[in-house]
Amino acid sequence: MPVSSPFWRQSPPSLDPDFLRQGRQRQASLTKPAGSLGQLEQLAITLSAQQQRSRPAVDRVRIVVFAADHGVCSEGVSAFPQEVTGQMIANFVNGGAAISVLARHLNAELEVVNLGTAHPLPIHDGVVMAEIAPGTANLATAPAMSAEQLQAALHAGQSAVQRAARTGAELFIGGEMGIGNTTAAAAVACALLDLAPEALAGPGTGLDADGLRRKVAVLHRALQRHRDTVTEAGQPLSVLASLGGFEVAALAGAFLAAAQARLPVLVDGFIASVAALAATRLQPGLADWLHFAHQSAEPGHVRVLTALDADPLLRLGMRLGEGSGAAVAVGLLRQACALHNEMASFEDAGISKGP
């Protein structure tokens, strides 16, 4: 009996051409000049084709925050101590974090997945425990994770999507939490885009100028150490294992699994976009299933968005992570669906249509 390939080796489905055509026809029939609603029109058309529904909807939103620690924190690349990762997991569950507030106001389901923290969690109730290790290894001196750990992280993302699909989710948002994870994300992006750390490294949680210089130096060391591995035909799995984080890999796995389940994805900021970049390098067809919420204030994000040919919906100077920027953008997707579904056509309204 043949063994099936891993899910990340399976191409996602293409968008349904009939629903794309119907969506364009619907937009052309509405009482407005063609194209006058800008990106909102294409949002609705794409959602219709993704969901295979003539009337798309994103009422049922699933937000999953993947959390993990990073060994590279021993290099002093973060303004916050590693204890904060576990403390923030508790804050998510207790409802005090930004993403917790936004999820409540969106009436969205929020799930928190612990992939491994360096310090004991102050809370377990309400947390999906999917521990791989107490954080990754120091990517500046060793591979961040083994091949087995990478696969576990990818599968954690897939499992989160499967849980979302069982609840009837119409939109998936992946968030992240992990002190030091902007360093890991910048390292992955540098390797995938063949760019120097100076082009992609930012202050993260608030590094000063000296801290940023230290972060850039650590990234140079990491890229040099893993040069032979990560330049091997730009293999995204090798890059993730050598330089990534558990939550970055889980996000990549979740995005791939969501596309395979025909579940639209709203991508958050810098770290989520780096995960999307790695995932689209594995499966280019994934791009059809991604919507990009915002352009982060993290300096490297614009480079990553450009590589993804992404046109983000918002530019608010946000850089919190957690999925917060994506949660803020949900309202735009809902308004796009409402306009597409509820506006009158020229024929219905008895209005003469222009050229």
Automatic annotation (TrEMBL):
Molecular function in Gene Ontology: glycosyltransferase activity
Pfam families (UniProt xref): DBI_PRT (PF02277)
Region (Disordered): 1-27
Superkingdom of source: Bacteria
InterPro entries: Nict_dMeBzImd_PRibTrfase, Nict_dMeBzImd_PRibTrfase_bact, Nict_dMeBzImd_PRibTrfase_N, Nict_dMeBzImd_PRibTrfase_sf
Active site per UniProt: E322
Keyword terms of this UniProt record: Cobalamin biosynthesis, Glycosyltransferase, Transferase
Pathway annotation from the record: Nucleoside biosynthesis; alpha-ribazole biosynthesis; alpha-ribazole from 5,6-dimethylbenzimidazole: step 1/2
Annotated catalysed reactions: 5,6-dimethylbenzimidazole + nicotinate beta-D-ribonucleotide = alpha-ribazole 5'-phosphate + nicotinate + H(+)
Its EC number(s): 2.4.2.21
HAMAP family reported for this sequence: CobT
Known role: Catalyzes the synthesis of alpha-ribazole-5'-phosphate from nicotinate mononucleotide (NAMN) and 5,6-dimethylbenzimidazole (DMB).
PANTHER family given in the database record: NICOTINATE-NUCLEOTIDE--DIMETHYLBENZIMIDAZOLE PHOSPHORIBOSYLTRANSFERASE
Family statement drawn from the similarity comment of this UniProt entry: Belongs to the CobT family.
Protein known as: Nicotinate-nucleotide--dimethylbenzimidazole phosphoribosyltransferase
Gene: cobT
